[in-house]
Specification:
InterPro entries: Acyltransf_C (IPR032098), Plipid/glycerol_acylTrfase (IPR002123)
GO cellular component, one term: mitochondrial outer membrane
Pfam families: Acyltransf_C, Acyltransferase
Structural class: alpha/beta
Enzyme class: transferase
Radius of gyration: 21 Å
Largest sheet: 8 strands, mixed
Keywords: Acyltransferase, Endoplasmic reticulum, Lipid biosynthesis, Lipid metabolism, Membrane, Phospholipid biosynthesis, Phospholipid metabolism, Signal, Transferase, Transmembrane, Transmembrane helix
Number of domains: 1
CATH class: Alpha Beta
């Protein structure tokens, strides 16, 4: 995996692992652990925390496949300056979350992954949107209407995208990694907290499920995914009672490449920037200084806006639709 690719993911993972020093303990079967990073995998993450996507990237980085990993993301993120644009040009899979519109584009994007030359994780949040109490209440009304068991810690999964992913990547992807993330001591991690250097303590339960165990027919695949989320919910409930997940805890070592990547770009870009600032200040022009302050303020607001995309209380209304829509997949 090239050290400098993809720079946006490397920098964010650097902030998590090296700047904030966030710890992540993985609970998994020791027999499955040696296969991580040595095979293509579909990674199913719960979607409850503002930095859960970042923990997924950290997982990929720890096993050396961040450079080739892809995500299934909402289309709005493609328009976020810098990060979203990079995602677009590095073949991330975007969806509008309206299946009639997404079917063709998602299928075409997934089929291109069949020929991807590197090992990768394909990360997917099957719940479609982050967990909130309001969305959970509506989701469980739909579960009751459909005769599905209630979930306490998750929303109902959206099954069609997962079924198409499995069908499109079968015989190329070896396994589904079912990942259930939680944080100790009721921590509520945020991207802003990571940027401020706050240290969090993550626990991640990873189950390796061979892809041949996942049914190919859409209805059976949907039933399989609902059962998976019932199991994930039981794991989360056990964690809330005991503070731990099943299986053996292990901490994969941090790799230095995210830090090397950051130091490279910092040395390349910051020196000319500081020279520019010094020259601007020494010029003594009030108009020039005012223009610089304005540009700096706009840039700061832009960064804050991009962080806002990840914040739960400013998340999309997806999942808050009237329950009469029956949470259609």
């Amino acid at each position: 995996t090239p050290i400098l690719w993809p720079p946006h993911a490397k920098k964010l993972v650097m902030l998590l692992e090296w700047w904030s020093g966030t710890e992540c303990v993985i609970y998994t079967d020791p027999r499955a652990y040696p296969k991580y990073g040595k095979e293509n995998a579909i990674v199913v993450l719960n979607h409850k925390f503002e930095i859960d996507f970042l923990c997924g990237w950290s997982l990929a980085e720890r096993f050396g496949v961040l450079g080739g990993s892809k995500v299934l993301a909402k289309k709005e993120l493609a328009y976020v300056p810098i990060i979203g644009w990079m995602w677009y040009f590095t073949e991330m899979v975007f969806c509008t979350r309206k299946w009639e519109q997404d079917r063709k584009t998602v299928c075409e994007s997934l089929l291109r992954l069949r020929d991807y030359p590197e090992k990768y994780f394909f990360l997917i949040h099957c719940e479609g949107t982050r967990f909130t109490e309001k969305k959970h209440q509506i989701s469980m009304q739909v579960a009751q209407a459909k005769g599905l068991p209630s979930l306490k810690h998750h929303l109902l999964p959206r099954t069609k995208g997962f079924a198409v992913t499995v069908r499109s990547l079968r015989n190329v992807v070896s396994a589904v990694y079912d990942c259930t993330l939680n944080f100790r001591n009721n921590e509520n991690p945020t991207l802003l907290g990571v940027l401020n250097g706050k240290k969090y303590h993550a626990d991640l339960y990873v189950r390796r499920i061979p892809l041949e165990e996942v049914p190919e027919e859409e209805d059976k695949c949907a039933a399989w995914l609902h059962k998976l989320y019932q199991e994930k919910d039981a794991f989360q409930e056990e964690y809330s009672r005991t503070g731990t997940f099943p299986e053996t805890p292990v901490v994969p070592p941090r790799r230095p490449w995210t830090l090397v990547n950051w130091l490279f770009w910092a040395s390349l870009l910051l020196y000319p920037f500081f020279r520019f600032v010094v020259n601007m200040v020494s010029s003594g022009s009030s108009l020039t200084l005012a223009s610089f302050v304005l540009v700096f303020f706009v840039a700061s607001m832009g960064v804050r806006w991009m962080i806002g995309v990840t914040e739960i209380d400013k998340g999309s209304a997806y999942g808050n639709m009237d329950s009469k829509q029956k949470h259609s997949d």
